Amino acid sequence: MPSNQATSSIFARRLKQARLGSDLTQEQLGIHAGIDEFSASARINQYERGKHIPHLAMGQRLARVLHVPTSFLYEEDDLLAALLVTAARLTRGKKKILLANAETLTQSTSTTRKTK
Length: 116
What we know:
- This protein is mostly helical and 116 residues long.
- The protein is 69% helix and 0% strand.
- It holds the Pfam family HTH_31.
């Protein structure tokens, strides 16, 4: 499990990435997530600098505003983070197909390792 400092750095990077991708200012994001308008910009700035990590409930509200899965904000692996965002946009039926394909890839990978 990553340290609190590592989690802070990951969260900060992902939050800023998602906010910029949503074309929101720090203040707009904070207000939409339910932070008082007078402290919204400062609080989001502290999150993005890694000075503070919000409680899970706030992380969930920020993710909802940014249209990303909450797990995206905490994911260390860049490829997995991108996959989470992409998968979240799929319909439930397509998510099932993606999962089945991922499971097939995992099985074929483990079969390949056994034959080597």
